[in-house]
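Changelog note: in this version the structure field was regenerated for every chain. One regenerated record is shown below for reference.
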Amino acid sequence: KRVLDLIGTKRMVVLVTIYGRASWIDAANASLSRIAAGRDNVVVADWHSAISAHPELLQSDGIHPSITGAHLFAKTIRAALAQLSERHTGVKVTLKELPSG
């Protein structure tokens, strides 16, 4: 919250949720959502939800994405950037489908 306050409202920010097995992850992701709420220049890219739906795209450690998982990560960030753009320009962003692997 302090960092977002310091950088101000003129910079566009994407916060990315985290994924893993640690007990604190759900609370950390909830904090990211709370911190972003009410800030027009901040969106949350929900990596946790995206990869939870496709755990087969993780490496054997169950945390880090495989190469194909990295494509899903990029799509997740890309969608958040499109959301920021729409919010600030009022123009609908149509994302073309990216290769999946």
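Spot check on this record: Residues 75 and 96 are 10 Å apart (CA to CA). The first helix runs from residue 2 to 7.
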